[in-house]
Amino acid sequence: MKRLQSSLMWTPLIASLAISPVAMSAQGPSDIHYDDASKVFRIDAGGVTYAFGINNVNELQPVYWGRQLSSGDAFPATMTEPPAASFDSPATTTLNEYAGWGGGLYVEPALKVTFPDGNRDLVLHYVSHTIKGNELTIMLEDIDRELFVELHYIVDDATGIVGRSAVIMNKTQTPVMIEGAAAATWSLPRGTDYSLRYLTGRWAAEDNLQKQPIHPGETVLESKRGSTGHQNNPWFAIERGDDSDEDTGNVWFGALAWSGSWRITVEQDQLQQIRVTGGFNPFDFGYKLLPGKQLETPVFYGGYSHHGIGGASRLLHRFELTKIVPEAPSLRPRPVIYNSWEATGFNVDEPGQEALAEKAASIGVERFIMDDGWFGQRKDDHAGLGDWYVNQQKFPHGLKPLIDKVHSLGMDFGLWVEPEMVNPDSNLYRKHPDWVLNFTGRPRTEQRNQLVLNLARQDVRDYVYGFLDNLLSHNQIAFLKWDYNRNWSEPGWPAVALDEQKAVYVDYVRNLYGILRELRAKYPNVEIESCSGGGGRVDLGILGLTDEVWPSDNTDPFDRLRIQDGFTYAYTPGVMMAWVTDSPSWANNRTTSVTYRFLSSMQGSLGVGANLNHWAPEEFATAKELIAAYKGIRETVQHGSLYRLVSPENGSEESVTESVSLDKKQGVLFAFLHSSHMGYPFPRVYLRGLDPKIDYRVTAISGALAKGSPSGASGSYWMSHGVDVDLRGDFQAAAFRFDAAGSNPGH
Ligand code: GLA
Q1: Domain 642-740, what architecture?
Q2: Alpha-carbon distance 528 to 369, whole Å?
Q3: Nearest CA residue ID for atom 8, ligand 1
Q4: Which residues line ligand 1 (CB under 6 A)?
């Protein structure tokens, strides 16, 4: 086998936009091989084999996806399913890597087009392929017309995760209307014991984990909203059999890198085969492809683990941290931040923010972020969006005095923006009412008193880039919280020809990515958070261009345990912001201790969003202590391996997570108790992922182990004997670090 390396890009759509190519790390060789005799392609990497063949009718037919096979294992040539009945054409019963809608296909097509002569039949056949390093490219062509599809496969050496995408090329002489284009179809063999996990939610209640058996028929995960959405997240995991749990069993998973309307369908077809097709949402889709032009789909990443759903998410976390996030693979720890939103709302001004900044600095905060309210005529959410000048009443001397003050306190400065939106009560809207998404003569439905700017328009794109460029070039801003507080309605683009208007679904997101890429290139030290009323725009597309995400506006530390748990099935805690806010929480009127709130937030990237003007000296003291402790574990929490030891799902009274550093020198344990019952002690906790042979000293970050627990023992002891945490009462929490003997626990 040839050792392959590549500096090819991960995400074609983003790649053409990326600042610098993400080079493949040399963690392990991948191998892509084509066998002439069987006509089977085989991709091996990270302990995973993915294979498909060119079958007897010249179509691409999936063969295998799972645990790595022996290099000597040979696959037979692929053959279509035999015709069974006049209702079951082989075109629909045979699995297909990327099927055009045509020739009697009744399952979800990957591609659906209409030619100008009315022909809507598309049958894609293999033409040629190239293998270059860790990337395989296959050219398909319609049986009759010069409509080509270039399929891309790129594999990650370390995790075996495969990125798949398609480029649709019109080499005919006439335009072709694309009515649906997926990035890929993933297939699994016939079986009746598959189950599906996916994430659902709404504002302030994101990332609820769902699990259900896969039955005949189709499950649709999607957003028709113009952006990723809170309701479904573009991630899935499929398990097989009953014996699959957090640590064991076969899990196939995937995540779509797209921040616009998207769809993933999970089908069990009539032969009980599983097909997962994902890409642009075909609902209301129409992309006119002129002769000589091409349309690039998002990338759909897929992976496999035989270590259960926990193994699957650890692979995805590693992949995100090493291949997706802008800094990858050289990651800096996320700073501890302060954000003004829950403390001051829209009432920001120079003295108020400076007072908060002083208090934030005193507890060890490293970045001070001023949220909404600093610009235009922004007093509440009725006015100002679109007018990105500094409000003179609130900041008579501009932002400089505040930024200087923040710097003098040893912190850097971040600012909230919501670039894609406009309030009708703004100078921008008064000047450019045609800049918003709208259908001529129809209502413009406001949500949060705002409309969506049509970023697909070049003039809007120029305006948005221009004001952000201006803001960043005139102020020492280290961080932007990029918000997006509504979904689309009346998504019209009346300024272009009728048959080009639906391109808004693609062109909007491309321009969003383009602006982010250009800003990052010009201001490489500026970090960006993706926020959309909490976690409404979290996906691998936006994560390629932003450094962190805001998972939810719900900052109740108990609700957050569940939201954070759900989040980690798809996304690394390294990008998951979590703030300590005031108690009782606005979300549930629940009262919790400052320690409980800190420990909940310390499971991700820690921030503080409380009104520090109301804090008592003891709260400052606790906060200072816990922030210092967090700095000693954040590398492990943010970039280590996460083990969900006890899930807060299904009303569990307890929840426990553990993070282990990559070198296994440190483990960090967080344990939470909702309520004690009948005097039962906290169940014993079994650590995972430590080195069984080395000794670890345990130090309490907060709370205590049960009386008589050893202060040091082998990894094997902590994992097999387990740990007894002394937790009783309501809303109690404890955290511990396990440091390998010889490493410095003071760090
Ligand atoms: C959204 C964000 C909040 C805050 C407000 C400001 O809801 O999710 O964190 O920034 O907007 O208006």
Answers
A1: Sandwich (2.60)
A2: 12
A3: 533
A4: 341, 371-372, 416, 483, 485, 531, 533-534, 550, 553
